[in-house]
Write the structure tokens for this entry.
Amino acid sequence: MLNSTTATQKASSRKEEGFSLLELVVVVAVLGVLSSIAIPSFNDIILTARQSGAASHVDALLKSASIYRINTGGYPNNWNQISRYYPGGFSDSSYESCTTYGSDCNGTERVILQGQYLINFFIDGNKFGISSWRFNNAGGTSQNYSVMGCISENTSGRMYLFKPPGAYYQGKPWTSGVLDDQGNSLNLCG
């Protein structure tokens, strides 16, 4: 009998080691559900953080252009003039060429935030605008939300951060037909 009891104890101790297949399946299922909830929220946080970085550039450049206009009587017309009063200053590391990322820039476009956004400035008579939008229409930056701002004789500077669903706009801030997230026509330049 002693041998029979010892064999039973050994068999029962083997069953208690590790997890059963059912327990592992339950844990994997719970982790799958939790990650399906967390990943979309995390993606929204990333997109908002990228847009905040672009908005910081747009805001600083609008302020720099305003100071330039006060000091010279006219709007800046190149990146060196626009960045003259920007605390970070103009440097190749701040505003990169599109060729750095294997693409072509149109006119005065530059790349900011390590390839996350394109940024450009526009001048039209008494209006000066900055727009920043997604760098690519595919891949990680394809969902970046646009930012634009304008200064004019009528405004000291206004900025708009686009939100989904109409979160993608590139071009002059005063273009007619550009709508905010409520469907109202934007009038940043006054």
